[in-house]
Specification:
483 residues, Immunoglobulin-like, six-stranded mixed β-sheet, five-stranded mixed β-sheet, 31 strands, binds CU-O-CU linkage, binds copper (II) ion, virion, EC 1.16.3.4
């Protein structure tokens, strides 16, 4: 038994569908040890610097791919910032095209948000001030240039951000970076026969979003994570363009959910399966005190508008995301699960809140099939237009948003807020959606409670959009101001 390498994948890669080529039986710990992004600790300096650059990345034993990254060839460092402290950033662009650094999960004013209105021209440096007035969380950052986000993130313009308060020891949580506190960026990719990253979405992928046939974790293929014989914390970031993961452990040990997108829960929730849509993050504890290895797997979820009107939900056979191998030479710092946590579950007062309805639309039929541009994707019938403010709202107000998704599942993301999921298709939110969120998978209809705590002017508005990046680039996005 061994992990399939890229060449062996090629035999399976043909075809129209998005099915993963890794059969569930083909996993075993490989000798390749998973590496973690370098840690860029800005907790005391209160300043960090990023530089967007091109890279030559060898994902496997094939040819090098031309990639993008922040401070490195592909992806970027894990930036650690201190909760409650004002931190400055400097983002320099050495690419030959505009890019940005959007702080997905940081609740900062619109002008510092890094969305499409804060594009950084080639050669320029952008200097935002991040007022980190929020509890600890795993956030991330990525480029956000309208029409180019999918390609730029595919090429590597993404990284992880940790908002920390240095209280993890008191919480009884693992916090040794790369030892028992693991940053895992999940991405699915596709490679050509030379081993070069391949991204050339045709009609099918433009419509449903890109789904690759090869699992890449932290920019690596076929690596295993070495873990201590104790409790291990995984900060899982879905940095894929469109793939929804439904994660589980191969021996069905639990994933103990401790934090959602925007912060800790009040207590761990033991899950057999954890759904993570593009843009979402989850922190889970996994118990390796038995000393037994295990494998993080995902169901191969089919999310396609071709599937008809029933929304997503189909699923192929599971594939390997990441094997874990217990290494007894690693220090065991935490050997028991915490009984409770100090996170506050959201409980916004929505009784008299104004209601806003948003419909995430896809146009079907001939126009959809044959036009490579145009208004295929929209919200409430309008495709994103950078010159149009879709609405404005009041600072510190609360609104109830009812968001409906057409034809398939859409991960809905809102900038500048942390929100509460009130209901999903009329019932109580599933476990993954009980904590504070900034992205939620819409499979039908969700009801959200928004509180707007930071300002965004009409010139630097916040975005709301589908986080299937091909949908976002295609116009399933809008913008609003807060004043
Ligand atoms: Cu993660 Cu508007 O994006
Ligand atoms: Cu965002
Ligand atoms: Cu979508």
């Amino acid at each position: 038994m061994k992990l399939l390498n890229r060449r062996e994948l090629l035999g399976h890669a043909a075809g129209f569908g998005a099915a993963f080529a890794l059969p569930s039986a083909a996993f075993a710990a490989s000798d390749k040890r998973l590496a973690y992004p370098p840690l860029l600790d800005a907790t005391t300096s209160r300043l960090f610097q990023l530089e967007a650059r091109t890279g030559e990345t060898r994902f496997d034993d094939g040819a090098a791919s031309e990639t993008f990254g922040y401070n490195q060839g592909y992806l970027g460092p894990t930036i650690r910032v201190q909760a409650g402290v004002e931190t400055r950033a400097e983002v320099h662009n050495t690419l030959g095209e505009p890019m940005s650094a959007h702080w997905h999960g940081l609740v900062v004013a619109g002008e510092f948000d890094g969305g499409p209105h804060q594009a950084i021209a080639p050669g320029d440096t952008w200097k935002p001030v991040l007022d980190l007035d929020q509890p600890p969380a795993t956030a991330w950052y990525h480029s956000h240039i309208h029409g180019a986000t999918a390609r730029q993130v595919m090429l590597g313009l993404a990284g992880v951000l940790q908002v920390t308060d240095d209280a993890d020891d008191a919480r009884g949580l693992p916090s040794a970076y790369g030892v028992d506190d693991l940053t895992l960026v999940l991405q699915d990719r596709q490679f050509n026969w030379r081993g070069r990253l391949k991204y050339d979405p045709g009609m099918h992928q433009s419509m449903n979003g890109f789904q690759g046939d090869t699992m890449v974790v932290n920019g690596q293929i076929g690596a295993s994570a070495a873990v201590p014989k104790g409790i291990v914390r995984c900060r899982v970031v879905n940095g894929s363009n469109a793939r929804v993961y439904r994660l589980s452990m191969s021996d069905s040990r639990s994933l103990h959910l401790i934090a959602t997108d925007a912060g800790f829960l009040d207590r761990p929730i033991a899950l057999n399966r954890l759904t993570l849509a593009p843009g979402e993050r989850a922190e889970v504890l996994v118990d390796f005190t038995s000393g037994r290895d295990s494998v993080l797997k995902s169901d191969d979820i089919i999310n396609s508008a071709m599937g008809g009107m029933m929304g997503g939900g189909g699923s192929g056979s599971p594939f390997t995301v990441l094997p874990f191998a217990v290494d007894t030479t690693l220090p065991v710092r935490i050997d028991a699960l915490p009984g409770s946590l100090d996170g506050q579950l959201p409980d916004l007062a929505v009784k008299d809140a104004p209601v806003r309805r948003l419909s995430l639309d896809m146009s079907m039929g001939m126009g959809m099939m044959f036009s490579r541009s145009g208004n295929r994707f929209s919200i409430n019938g309008a495709s994103y237009d950078s010159g149009t403010l879709n609405f404005s709202t009041k600072l510190n107000s609360i609104e109830r948003w009812i968001v409906r998704g057409a034809m398939m599942m859409h991960p809905f993301h809102v900038h500048g807020v942390r929100f509460q999921v009130l209901s999903e298709n009329g019932t109580a939110p599933r476990a993954e959606n009980r904590g504070w969120k900034d992205t939620v998978l819409v499979d039908g209809e969700v009801e959200l409670a928004m509180k707007f705590e930071k300002p965004a002017s009409a010139a630097a508005p916040y975005m709301y959009h589908c986080h299937i990046l091909e949908h976002e680039d295609g116009g399933m996005m809008g913008q609003f101001s807060v004043a």
